[in-house]
Amino acid sequence: MQMSARIGHYARLLRQPVDQKVEAPFAGIITARGTDRGALITSGSGSAASPPLFRVAHVENLRIFVNVPQTFVRSIVPGQEVRVLVPEYPQRPFVGKIASTAGALDPASRTLLTEVRLRNEDLALMPGMYAQVKCTTSAFSSGGTSDNRSRSSRVSLGTNGSSSVHRTG
């Protein structure tokens, strides 16, 4: 009986693939590795506290998250063009568009989380770069005339929604 169990176990081992291929759900670049090459990874071995195997960024189309101060919320419209400026390219503004907003202000900061989408075909921008997002807002005076002003926020280009944002004026 012991010999037949060993043969059965050996046959199961032969049926298992030696190496498994890990594929991302989209094309991109690996920005962080949470494991070493050749490490044993077993199904279900991860937990909420364990780091992900990899972080992958799709950098051809960037999503930039900006917190817009309450004063300028009325001027933010999906489809509106914005300019993204980075210190590494001082003479080259990148043009993006407002894709969406959270639809409600953050009660702690009184800001509106706004998503800007930007094409990055030449891969000039990288996740983690600091940038300044500028848009033209329309502030209404008491007389009802509109005053067009350029407002900007500083952001860190991220691969997720945790970009840091600071209002600059």
**Strand adjacency order, main sheet:** 3-6-5-4-7-8-9
Main sheet characteristics? 7 strands, antiparallel
Strand content: 35-45%
Quickly name the level 1 CATH class of the largest domain.
Answer: Mainly Beta
How many individual helices? 1
Question: What is the element string, with H for helices and E for strands?
Answer: HEEEEEEEEE
Measure the end-to-end span: 80 Å
Q: How would you sum up the global shape?
A: elongated
CATH superfamily of the largest domain: Efflux pump adaptor protein, beta barrel domain
Question: What is the CA-based Rg, rounded?
Answer: 24 Å
Q: Pick out the low-confidence regions.
A: 139-149, 159-169
CATH topology of the largest domain: Elongation Factor Tu (Ef-tu), domain 3
SS-derived structural category: mainly beta
- Average pLDDT number: 76
Q: Give the total of domains.
A: 2
Number of beta strands: 9
Helix content: under 10%
CATH architecture of the largest domain: Beta Barrel
Describe the structure.
By secondary structure, the chain is mostly beta strands. It folds into two domains: 2-57, no CATH class; 61-167, Efflux pump adaptor protein, beta barrel domain (Elongation Factor Tu (Ef-tu), domain 3, Beta Barrel). Helices cover 8% and strands 41% of the residues. The chain is built from one helix and nine strands, in the order αβββββββββ. The model is unreliable at 139-149 and 159-169 (pLDDT under 50).
Strand and helix layout:
Elements: H1 2-15, E1 29-33, E2 54-57, E3 61-69, E4 81-85, E5 94-106, E6 111-119, E7 130-140, E8 146-156, E9 165-167
Antiparallel strand pairs: 1-2, 3-6, 4-5, 4-7, 5-6, 7-8, 8-9
